[in-house]
Amino acid sequence: VVQAFKTGGAELQRLAAIALKSIGPVAAPESSDALSRGTRPKPGQDVELRRLAVVALGAMGRDVVAQHQMDLAKALEDPYEPVRKEARAALRAAGCQTALKGSMALFQQIKNGKRQALPPPLDEKQLAEDEEQRRKR
């Protein structure tokens, strides 16, 4: 499945991303790096594939999201709004608060040598409240 995601045609890559999301954390050791690379915009790339890569990363759990939070933070600036939305949701659910401020905020934290422990994940009510506050801004 990982090989299909890396080298397949657009439709096969989409199906592989969906499969990796369904497999979840078990697939992370072999697939998370490829999925993280798949979140980066490339000329002529299928934008839906980027969204699916973000969704699959989010489904792999907090540790995987934290490991790849730089690419997910960069995805917050993706030209395709559904990619930005899914990246926000993945980072929020994993408690990656600095990454939610964007890749430069995260870079500055890493540059300063500050590694913060992940806070507990937000529950559904907290996620809904946070999303409502974001919409009001």
Summarize the helices and strands and which ones pair or pack.
Layout (H helix, E strand, L loop, with lengths): L1 H6 L2 H14 L4 H11 L8 H13 L2 H6 L1 H7 L5 H14 L2 H4 L2 H9 L12 H13 L1
Helix pairs in contact: 2-4, 3-4, 4-7, 6-7
Defining traits:
mainly alpha, single chain, globular
Which percent range describes the beta-strand content? under 5%
Note the main sheet.
Answer: none
Q: Runs with pLDDT <50, length 5+?
A: none
Summing up helix and strand content along with how strands pair, one would put the structural category as mainly alpha
Summarize the structure.
The protein is an all-alpha fold. It has helices spanning 2-7, 10-23, 28-38, 47-59, 62-67, 69-75, 81-94, 97-100, 103-111, 124-136.
Architecture overview:
The radius of gyration is 15 Å and the shape is globular. 71% of the residues lie in helices and 0% in strands. The chain has 10 helices and no strands. The protein is mostly helical and 137 residues long. It starts with a helix and ends with a helix. The model has no long low-confidence stretch (mean pLDDT 87).
